[in-house]
Amino acid sequence: MNLDDLPASHRARIVAVDWPSLAPEEGKRLRALGIDEGTEVEIAHRGIFAGKDPIALIVGKMTVALRRSHARAMTVEDI
Q1: What does the pLDDT look like over 17-55, one tens digit per residue?
Q2: Is-contact 74 23, C-beta < 8 A?
Q3: Is 19 helix (H, G, I), strand (E, B) or coil?
Q4: Structural domain boundaries of the chain?
């Protein structure tokens, strides 16, 4: 399942990221925020407009705003 498909308040582990589908500077930023394979995440909430963008993602004790296009590049598994 993609991170974009994860329901709110469900915890998951990122098992794969399609880094080539992201711009190099975007991948660097995500890694700097600790978003990489093996990271446990949770969707806090989604944007309120039609596109449901951005996604508020809990990573450790941080809440990070993430574009849906980035979330689609990440495969997760429930934990």
Answers
A1: 999 988 889 988 989 888 889 999 999 888 777 667 788
A2: no
A3: helix
A4: 3-78
Residue range 3-78 forms a domain whose CATH class is mainly beta
Q: pTM here?
A: 0.81
Tokens of residue 65, six digits: 């705003």
- Angle (CA) 29 33 38, round 5°: 110
Measured from the Cβ of residue 3, the count of other Cβ atoms closer than 10 Å reads 22
Q: Give residue for tokens 């915890």.
A: 11
d(CA 29, CA 38): 17
Q: DSSP per residue over 50-66, as a string?
A: TT--SEEEEETTEEEEE
CA distance linking residue 12 with residue 53, whole number of Å: 19
Radius of gyration over alpha carbons of the chain, in Å? 11
What residues are paired with 64 via a beta bridge? 57
